[in-house]
Design brief:
With 698 residues, this protein is of the alpha+beta class. The chain is built from twelve helices and 38 strands. A hairpin with an 8-residue loop joins strand 17 and strand 18. One of its GO terms (molecular function) is peptidase activity.
Length: 698
C-alpha cells in the first residue's frame, strides 16, 4: 500500500460568505470550477490516490465482479407486455452493456405473454432500439424517453451521452424503420402523444436544471416551430407531461414539494387550451388519473395520508369522496382500468395493492406470504384488461413478475429473476437466508424499524460484521429489495440492515414530516440509534459496522460521521449531498429553489440558516477520530454536484489528517453512476471490496 500523500487541495485564495451576520470561509470553493484544468487534474490525482490505496483489493474486486456476473443470466429477456397488437420487451445479450428493445406481433388466440427461458430472441421479433448500437463511441449512455405512439407506428426516444440528464429527442417510424428528421436537443424526461400521433409533447429545463416548460411538436416539422404549451415561472415548481392510460387526455403535472396542480388537454384536440383540474393551493398535493366519465383525484386536502376522490371529466369541479382518509394507511397512487381501480397503499411499513371493482363488489387487498416484501404495479399499458401485471420482491426473493386475474383473484407467476450458481457452483436457495424486522429506540422515544437479512446460522453474539444502509429524505421509502451483489456479502457472513429512518415515507406522511425542515436532525439521530441498537442487540459491534448511503443518503452519511464517528468502522457515501448549506444558499445552482420546501430557505430565514449550519457535513468537520470514508461522485452529476464530496474530503484531510479518506470520481457519468451494466457491477464490486476490507473479511 502506498505511503504517499494525496495532492493538497487548499491552493487558492479562499472565498468568504456572509449571511445573517455570519461569516464563513470556504477554502475549497475553487473546486466548483468544473472547466478549470487544475480542477480536473486534482480529481484525476484523487482517483490515482484511491486506486493506489486500494490496489491490494484488486484481486477481491475481480472476484466479486465475477460472482455478480456468474450469478446473472447475462442473455435474458423481460416478460413481454401487451399494448395493442404487439408484445413489448427488452433483451440483454452476454457481453453487451445495454438492453435491446423489441416487439413482436400478438398471434391469434395468444392471451399469455410468450416467455423465452434462455433469453433468446422471440420468433418474428422487431428490434425497435438497440442501446449498444446507440452507445457506440460513448463512455456513457442513457435513455430518457421511450414512448410508443397510440397507433404503434412511432417511437419517441431520447438519449444522453454525458450523464447530465439533458436529452436529445428523436422519432422513429416503426413501420419503415426510418429515423425521421425530427431532432430536439435539450429535453428532459417525459413525453406524451396526441391521439392521432401527429403531435408530441415534451419538457425542457431552465438554467437551474428545473423542468419548467411543456412544448408541443408537430411530427415532420423543425423544432424551431414548436409551441410552448405551459411555462412555469414559479421556481419552486417542476413540470411533467404524460398520456393517461385511457389515451384520452394529456396531463401536465405541476408540483413543488408541498403543492401541486394538474392541467389536462384532450389527446384528440392537442392544440386545445389546457384546463385546470383544481387551482394550486399551498400545501395541497393531488394527482389525477382518467377513468371513464371522471377524473380520479388522490389528494391530501384535510387528509394527511391522502384520500381518493373524483370529479367530472367534462366539467371538473367539486371532489366527491371515494376512499376516505385513514390515518396510518398512506395512499400512494391510483391506477384506473375500465372495470377496476387499483390503489397502491402503504401500511405498517409495507407496500400493498388494493383492488376496487367498478361495477360493484367488495374492495380487497392482494395477499402476500412474506413478512417483509415490496410489491407494486409493473407495466400495465392496456386500459381494457382483466389482468394486472405486478412486480414482487423481498430481501431473499428475487424480482418476480406476476399476472393477477382481477375477476378470479388468481395470481400466476410468469417469471422470477434467475440467480445462477456462483463461481464455486453454489446454488442460491432462499431458505439459506433469513430476513426479519427489528426496532430501535430513538432519542425521543420513537420506535424506528430496521430490516435485516443474513445467511442462516450467522452468529448473534456481536461478532458478525454488518452493513447498515439509509436514506431518509423526500418521503422516499427504502423498501425491501433483492440484490445479487449483496449475496457476496451475505455469503461472507455479513449482515445487511436497512434503517427506515424519519424523513422517508415508510410509516406514512407524518414519518416524512418529522424528518425534514427544522426536524431534519431526527433523520441523523434515528440512524445513529439504529447503529447503536444493532450493537446492543448483538447483531454486530461498532468496529464491525459499515454505513452506506447515496445522494440525500450521502448527506446522512456525512452527518452521522460528525455525530457519532465511534459508531462505525467505515462509511460509504455515494454522490453525497454533503455541502448542503452552500448549495441551498445559491439559487443559481441546479434544483436549489425547488429544495427550499424540503430543507427550508436559509437565505430568507436565519433560523433555518443556523439549523442547517449545525448539521451540514462540510460545515461541521472537526478534529475527530473519523472512521474510514469512501466518497464516490460523478463529474457530470446535475443533482449533487461533484465538488461537494471533493470539498468534503479535502476538508476532512486538513482538519482530521489522521483519518483514511478516499474520493473516487467517475469522469464520464451522472448522478446514477456508470451507465453500462458491467461498469455498474464493477463499481459495486469496488464498494463491496472496500467494505469487506473495513470489516476484516477481505
Amino acid at each position: 500500500m502506498t505511503t504517499e500523500t494525496p495532492v493538497p487541495a487548499a491552493r487558492r485564495v479562499p472565498t468568504e460568505r456572509v449571511h445573517h451576520g455570519d461569516t464563513v470561509v470556504d477554502e475549497y470553493a475553487w473546486l466548483a470550477t468544473k472547466d478549470d484544468p487544475e480542477t480536473i487534474n486534482y480529481l484525476n490525482a484523487e482517483n490515482a490516490w484511491t486506486e493506489a490505496r486500494t490496489a491490494h483489493l484488486s484481486g477481491l474486486r475481480t472476484e466479486l465482479f465475477e460472482e455478480i456476473r456468474r450469478r446473472t443470466q447475462e442473455t435474458d429477456l423481460s416478460v413481454p407486455t401487451r399494448k395493442g397488437e404487439h408484445w413489448y420487451y427488452t433483451r440483454t445479450v452476454e457481453g453487451q452493456q445495454y438492453g435491446v428493445h423489441c416487439r413482436r406481433a400478438v398471434r391469434p388466440d395468444e392471451t399469455t405473454p410468450p416467455i423465452s427461458a434462455d433469453g433468446a430472441p422471440l420468433d418474428g421479433e422487431q428490434v425497435l432500439l438497440d442501446g449498444n448500437l446507440l452507445a457506440e463511441g460513448h463512455d456513457f449512455f442513457a435513455l430518457g424517453a421511450f414512448d410508443i405512439s397510440p397507433d404503434g407506428r412511432y417511437l419517441a426516444y431520447s438519449t444522453d451521452f454525458s450523464g447530465d440528464e439533458r436529452f436529445t429527442l428523436r422519432v422513429k417510424d416503426l413501420s419503415t424503420g426510418e429515423l425521421l428528421p425530427d431532432e430536439i436537443p435539450g429535453t428532459f424526461y417525459g413525453t406524451a402523444w396526441s391521439a392521432d400521433a401527429s403531435m408530441l409533447f415534451y419538457v425542457t429545463v431552465d438554467e437551474a436544471w428545473r423542468p419548467h416548460r411543456v412544448w408541443r411538436h408537430v411530427i415532420g416539422t423543425a423544432a424551431t416551430e414548436d409551441v410552448v404549451v405551459h411555462a412555469e415561472d414559479d421556481e419552486r415548481f417542476w413540470v411533467g407531461v404524460e398520456l393517461t392510460r385511457s389515451e384520452r387526455f394529456v396531463l401536465i403535472d405541476i408540483a413543488s414539494k408541498l403543492t401541486s396542480e394538474v392541467r389536462v388537454i384532450p389527446a384528440g384536440n392537442p392544440t386545445g387550451e389546457p384546463a385546470v383540474i383544481a387551482p394550486r393551493r399551498q400545501g395541497v398535493e393531488y394527482s389525477v388519473e382518467h377513468h371513464g366519465h371522471r377524473f380520479l383525484i388522490l389528494h391530501n386536502d384535510g387528509a394527511e395520508d391522502f384520500a381518493l376522490a373524483y370529479t367530472s371529466a367534462d366539467a371538473p369541479g367539486d371532489w366527491v369522496p371515494l376512499i376516505e382518509h385513514s390515518p396510518g394507511t398512506r395512499l400512494e397512487s391510483v391506477d384506473a382500468f375500465a372495470d377496476h381501480l387499483v390503489v397502491s397503499v402503504r401500511s405498517n411499513g409495507l407496500t400493498g395493492l388494493r383492488v376496487l371493482p367498478v361495477g360493484g363488489g367488495d374492495a380487497h387487498d392482494i395477499e402476500f406470504p412474506e413478512p417483509l416484501h415490496t410489491v407494486g404495479l409493473d407495466a400495465n399499458p392496456e386500459y381494457r384488461t382483466g389482468r394486472l401485471r405486478l412486480r414482487y420482491t423481498s430481501l431473499v426473493t428475487p424480482d418476480s413478475v406476476y399476472d393477477y386475474d382481477l375477476v378470479t383473484r388468481e395470481m400466476t407467476l410468469l417469471r422470477q429473476r434467475p440467480v445462477l450458481p456462483g463461481p464455486d457452483g453454489q446454488v442460491y436457495r432462499p431458505e439459506d437466508y433469513e430476513q426479519q424486522r427489528d426496532w430501535a429506540l430513538a432519542d425521543d422515544g420513537t420506535k424506528v424499524p430496521i430490516s435485516l437479512v443474513y445467511r442462516r446460522g450467522t452468529p448473534r453474539d456481536g461478532s458478525a460484521p454488518c452493513v447498515i444502509y439509509g436514506y431518509g429524505s423526500y418521503e422516499a421509502s427504502m423498501d425491501p429489495w433483492f440484490s445479487v451483489g449483496r449475496l457476496s456479502l451475505l455469503d461472507r457472513g455479513v449482515i445487511f440492515a436497512v434503517a427506515h429512518i424519519r424523513g422517508g415515507g415508510e410509516l406514512g406522511r407524518r414519518w416524512y414530516d418529522h424528518g425534514k425542515m427544522l426536524a431534519k436532525k431526527n433523520t441523523f439521530t434515528d440512524f445513529v440509534a439504529c447503529a447503536r441498537h444493532l450493537a446492543k442487540a448483538g447483531w454486530t459491534a461498532p468496529d464491525r459496522l459499515v454505513a452506506r448511503g447515496g445522494s440525500a443518503g450521502g448527506l446522512l452519511m456525512g452527518a452521522v460521521a460528525n455525530l457519532a464517528p465511534d459508531a462505525f468502522a467505515g462509511i460509504v457515501a455515494q454522490v453525497p449531498f454533503v455541502d448542503a448549506l452552500n448549495t441551498i444558499l445559491d439559487p443559481s445552482l441546479p434544483l436549489t429553489v425547488t429544495e427550499w420546501e424540503e430543507w427550508g430557505n436559509p437565505l430568507a430565514d436565519p433560523e433555518v440558516y443556523a439549523y442547517m449550519k449545525s448539521y451540514t457535513p462540510y460545515e461541521n468537520v472537526a478534529a475527530l477520530d473519523y472512521p474510514a470514508i469512501l466518497a464516490m461522485t460523478s463529474l457530470n452529476d446535475t443533482r449533487v454536484l461533484y465538488h461537494e464530496p471533493a470539498k468534503w474530503i479535502a476538508r476532512l484531510r486538513a482538519v482530521a489528517p489522521q483519518g483514511d479518506y478516499l474520493l473516487k470520481t467517475e469522469m464520464e457519468a451522472g448522478h446514477g453512476g456508470p451507465s453500462g451494466r458491467y461498469d455498474a457491477w464493477r463499481e459495486e464490486a469496488f464498494i463491496n471490496a472496500w467494505t469487506l476490507d473495513r470489516l476484516g473479511r477481505a
